[in-house]
Specification:
151 residues; alpha+beta; 4 helices; 5 strands
């Protein structure tokens, strides 16, 4: 099945994109990357003997892949043309979805909870570690003051 999956992926990649990379990832899926369109497709064996799970997603800045945006189960016996049509539908769904936030950009401003926005609730700014540091500094200052006052 794995060899057939790899051959199918090579044929499919040639139909979908002019530039592509086909490789097997750690989980055993065959992945087709279209760097010029910033999209990827993966093919993996599904529960049925002649079925494959097709997933599609985006390639983020820096070359990392975002999680799959859409997926479908397709019969492998349907042929490469039918598989290519299913992949095009998945890629269209991926392109229509909003772009994911850039990695490391932090949470969006509008995603704070209502409790945090209203200022209610108990929010602790000073953690236990900070209190220990403050206590140690005060102890050292007290010891210095004691040594100055008491000769």
């Amino acid at each position: 099945m794995r060899a057939r999956l790899r051959e199918t992926a090579e044929e499919l990649a040639g139909l979908l994109w002019r530039e592509y990379i086909v490789y097997r990832d750690r989980s055993g899926e065959v992945v087709i990357r279209g760097e010029h369109v910033q999209r990827w497709i993966s093919l993996a064996p599904a529960a049925g003997a002649d079925e494959i799970l097709v997933r599609a997603g985006r390639i983020l800045d820096g070359g990392t892949t975002a999680p799959a945006r859409s997926e479908a189960v397709v019969a492998l016996s349907a042929g490469t043309g039918e598989l290519a049509a299913a992949c095009r539908r998945l890629l269209a769904d991926t392109a229509a979805a909003p772009a994911p936030p850039a990695p490391g950009s932090g949470p969006a401003k509008g995603r704070r909870s209502a409790k945090a926005r209203s200022g209610g609730g108990s929010r602790r700014h000073t953690g236990l570690g900070s209190w220990v540091v403050i206590a140690c500094v005060l102890g050292v200052l007290g010891l210095c003051a004691y040594r100055i006052v008491v000769p």
